[in-house]
Design goal:
Blueprint lengths: L3 E8 L5 H18 L3 E8 L4 E8 L2 H10 L4 H8 L3 E9 L5
Antiparallel strand pairs: 1-3, 1-4, 2-3
Helix pairs in contact: 1-3
Length: 98
Amino acid sequence: MATTVELTRFSVAPHQTDAMLAARPAMLADFRADRAGFLGARLVALPDGEWLDIVEWRSADDFAASRAKGANRPGIAAFFAAIDHLVTAEEGVLAEPE
């Protein structure tokens, strides 16, 4: 089974950056507790207030099940609330051996 990679690029208003970063640990804890197949995530700061979230899932089905749950836990909801707008969202498969 190939690892599924979620690539989400989003913008955060400057006054929300601290709130987004503060919410990140609770969001990750909620994902670990509530999302089967969640393997990990990395957050990359880009220019102009944009961010890239790189999330790895055990499978495409696990990723789809996570999306269906949305912001169902407080840590996830707080992180999502700090996002100004979604720029792009893509899904791929890890091409390099782990």
